[in-house]
Amino acid sequence: MAPTGDDDHYRPKDAIAAGVNGALVTGGAGLFAAAIQNSLQKRNVGAWGIFTRGGATIATFTAVGGVYEFSHRAAANLRAKDDHYNNAIGGFLAGSILGVRYCLAGRIPGVLGWGALTAVILSVYEYTGGSLKGFAKDPNVDEYERKEMLRQSRRRPIKETLAEVGEGRSIRPPGYEERRRQRLKETYGIDIHTVSADANV
After folding, report:
1. Which of 83, 162, 175, 188 is the 20 to 30 A CA-CA neighbour of 62?
2. CA 160, CA 167: separation in Å to the nearest integer?
C-alpha cells in the first residue's frame, strides 16, 4: 500500500503467528508440488518419494513462506509503519532463501540477486495497491450510481466517434445509405436504387 501518512495509529501484529501460518500454507503448497513431481517420475518410486525426493522442495516452500511472513510483520512492528518497505524487507529475506543453492555452490551474488528480485516485485506490488484487480471500490458508493458516473464521464458523442472511426463496417449513422449511394456514383458511376423488403414502404 502506498504511503498514506496514517502512521500514528499503528497496531503491532503477531509476527510469530503470521510466520507459522505462512510456513504452514506454503509448506502445504510445497507438499503439493512435491507430490506432482513424484507422480511425474518415469519409474515407480512409491508414496514416500514425496518426502525423500521432494523434501528439498517442501523445505524451501515452507522456509520462504515462514520467513516472508515473519520478517514482513516484524519489520512493520519495529518500524511502527505498515507500508511497502516491509514487503521489500520480507521479500529480500524470502528471496535469499530461494538463492541458497547458489550459496552452497559458492556464489553469493545469486543469493543477493534472488533477494533483490523478490524484494522489488513484492514492494512494487504492494506500493501499487496490492491487488491484481485494481483499486478497492468505495463501500459507501452504490454500484449502480458508480457505473452511471463512469458512463457519463467516459461517454463520447456519436458524431465525434464517427469522425474518428468513419462509416461502414456495420457503423451506419442516419443518412448513411444516401452518402454511400452518392460515393458509389461519384467513384464508379453506378447509380444504386435501394429496394426495401417491407411491402408497405
Report:
1. 83
2. 12
- Angle formed by the axes of helices 55-79 and 84-98, nearest 10°: 150
d(CA 61, CA 94): 10
pLDDT above 60 (res 57): yes
Specify the DSSP class assigned to residue 133.
T
Q: What is the three-class DSSP state of 23? A: helix
Q: Is 31:58 a contact under the CB 8 Å cutoff?
A: yes
- Per-residue pLDDT reduced to its tens digit, 148-179: 888 887 777 777 877 777 776 777 777 788 88
The yes-or-no verdict on residue 76 having pLDDT over 50 is yes
- Report the first-to-last Cα separation within the chain, whole angstroms: 64
Q: Are 100 and 59 in contact (CB under 8 A)?
A: no
Exposed/middle/buried for residue 1 (C-beta within 10 Å: 0-12, 13-18, 19+): middle
C-alpha cell at 17: 503467528
